[in-house]
Amino acid sequence: MDDVTLGGHPLAESPVFAPLDERPVDPESGAVWPAREDLFAAPEGPDGALFAAVDEAPEQTFQQTYDTGPAAEEEVSRPAGAPLSVGVGELVELWDAALALNERIRRLVVRSVVEQQGRQPLTHHNASAYAYGYEQEYPPAPAHASAFEEETPERQTVIALIAKGATENEITNEVFYLRNPAVRGMSLKANSKEARQWSAIRATEVRPITRSLLDTSAVDPVELAMFFSQYESDDWVPEPITRRFLTGSPLLSMGRSLRDLVLRNWNAGGSPLTLDGFYRLAYELTGHPATAMLLCHNVTKAFARGGTAITWDRPNHSDGRRIWTPKVIHPAGKLVRNEFGQPIIFFLLYSAKELGTVDRGDWYHHYVTATMTAYGGGGGLTPGSSWEAESLPADGLAHEDRVDDVKNAAVGMLYPDLVRDQILNLEQQMTNPDLRSAPGYRGWVLANAMSFLEGGYYGKGGQPEVDRESRFHVRGAVMGLRVSGAKPGKDWVWYVPVAHSISKPDLFFGLNFRSKTTKALDSTGQPLVQGKQP
Length: 534
What we know:
4 strands; disordered N terminus
């Protein structure tokens, strides 16, 4: 499974659900654009993954997929009243989509009616969230105190720049030059009085204000899983969720600042960052373990796949301000080339010894499970899920002329509800009732559910690959628990799916995870003895 986020989703191009391969090229700009694959056809090309594939297509152009739009499709006129020409295969696919859509609508209607009557429907997918009455083990971390108690013009300037996604160094520059207008634009000499003043502004003013703006309240685990399940800015993920975990203030500013710290560490000759070393950089920015893990995910994903929010032009190694030339500066750095002979900067920035160099995606997959368990271990997950699917418009599908449009629109509206059902369904099945109250256990189970969906659906690379990735996922989950002050118990189990055993009907209507499980691991990633498996 080449560099993955959950990719190649049957319902979407996914990243924890999309491959980026074999994409059409805009004939005018030369930009490579992701083609939304046939919704119900088997994905082609390298495997996708629950967590999004990094393609290794030739990287010839500076233009990123987010720079320009695809060429407009040619209008095809059809005489009024003329029948729409649809093949038998398309009719079968559309019929399958309609059946699935009708079932989903029925479930939504039943749920709505029962909830209006003041009781929860006890269904397979919400029993664990609502009937179990999960109690959080730890209160949410308090917000950090601001360096400025009064609303001063300088504080307003800082907050405005944070909201725009400026990095902490850019914000520090602005505050420093407001106080020292005579030296605006001039470089500061190291260890000079001015340089020390600049450092003090960043450490005692800008960073504390940025931390004070963090939302450290409990997160909805389904929304977090939904964010991890798609490529950046994919329209299948509701915008409020993307804003909550990536583009909102102050996360975007922090993410860009962390990106710059990684580049400066490499450029200054620092040792490639380890998993723990990178986390420590993120924690220095946030002061909050789970948010630090989330930032680690967002930044490693940008470096591995390219990023729009946390700007990174992967083919040209550019942060939007300058182009960085990959080269070995520290002897531990490893300059890896892709199959086209083009240099990859990733393992100059991050240690090749940690997770190997087979798949850059292993890094942000590691932080996917670490983020979920860090929130869970610190009491930062809501008891259930408050997510509600969007209302279905009365004529939302009535005027579509193309079969693909109908399928995309139908499943797109229901995608959030589908994610909720499957994550909570697996949570219920995987939960050991005797361990439900253990600190951090729910985050562990939810992280396993995401990993299971990835390997079970997208694991077309074979069982050895799914086994390898599952061990990395366990390692991430343990790290998330550790930084939140929790640790896995000796009876905690991690289930590994049979590669590519989850079907599209399973994703629509639920699955029995035991029939899809090939083995169980302990918290060290070692297989449990058959007789000791729960």
